[in-house]
Amino acid sequence: MLVLSRKGNETIKIGNDIEIKIIEVKGDTVRLGIEAPKNVDILRGELVKSISETNAEAITLDRSLFSQLIKKD
To answer: Per the domain annotation, does 32 fall within a domain?
Structure first.
């Protein structure tokens, strides 16, 4: 992991196509601007985690419900 210190209006380049700009630093909150090609997905980490957890819950089979379905056949 690369760890950088940046101030407001400074940027970080990732490859040739992605630029992250520090828009504002206020207390413990940093506002970022991200310029990237339209084909690059940019998602918040906590959103990805929430979606993954929800998907895992959706595929978890309730054993008692499954047993009830088997008995009906």
So the answer is: yes
Please give the residue range of the domain that contains residue 47. 11-72
pLDDT in single tens digits along all 73 residues of the chain: 999 999 999 999 999 999 999 999 999 999 999 999 999 999 999 999 999 988 887 777 666 677 777 776 5
Alpha helices in 1-73 (DSSP H): 45-59, 63-72
Handedness of CA 68, 70, 71, 73 (dihedral sign): positive
Retrieve residue 6's tokens.
Answer: 């940046």
Q: Model-level pTM?
A: 0.67
CA dihedral 9→25→33→3, nearest 10 degrees, is: 90
